[in-house]
Design a protein that fits this description.
mainly alpha, elongated
Length: 46
């Protein structure tokens, strides 16, 4: 499951998530609500 599903999952707070940071950053740039929520807890893009 982790190899196939977790590499495509949008639950970025899951410890099994293996999506690359650059992909996650691109996702956040397109989703203002999620970006604000992650930044509130200290996430930095780039």
């Amino acid at each position: 499951m982790k190899v196939y599903y977790c590499s495509r999952c949008v639950n970025f707070s899951c410890p099994l998530n293996t999506v690359e940071k650059r992909i996650f950053d691109e996702y956040l740039l397109k989703n203002d609500v999620m970006m604000d929520a992650w930044k509130k807890y200290g996430y930095k893009t780039g």
